[in-house]
Design goal:
- The protein has a five-stranded mixed sheet. The chain has a two-stranded parallel ribbon with strand order 3-5.
- The chain has one domain: 2-Layer Sandwich (Transcription Regulator spoIIAA), CATH 3.30.750.24.
- Helix content is 41%, strand content 30%.
- With 108 residues, the chain is an alpha/beta fold.
């Protein structure tokens, strides 16, 4: 996972699979970043090839922390498989989704 800052926004970019093996560590790192209370946070899933229920839980925890602390929060860059899992689970109803990082930066 890499973390960068662009236009005053924290961008978190996990890589590989967000599954039961590595989603807990991702969740811990994302929570730590959000506890610093940035004004905006984007999770760029461009390099995520697989998203399990554990990965969804990590993204949900990020959304809950963000809502509690009034942090603008979104995900972007999902490939079709990851996007299908995300939308079929209904997460697109309460987490903002953008196709690209640029679109997220512009509209978040």
């Amino acid at each position: 996972m890499t973390t960068t800052e662009q236009e005053g926004t924290i961008i978190v970019s996990p890589k590989g699979k967000l599954d039961t093996l590595n989603a807990p560590e991702f969740s811990k790192q994302l929570s730590s970043i959000l506890e610093q209370k940035p004004s905006r946070c984007i999770v760029d899933l461009n390099e995520v090839s697989f998203l399990s229920s554990s990965g969804l839980q990590a993204l949900l925890l990020g959304a809950k922390i963000s809502k509690k602390d009034n942090i603008a929060y979104a995900v972007c860059g999902m490939d079709e498989l990851v996007k299908d899992v995300f939308t079929l689970s209904g997460f697109d109803r309460f987490i903002k989704v953008f196709d690209t990082k640029e679109e997220a930066l512009k509209n978040l």
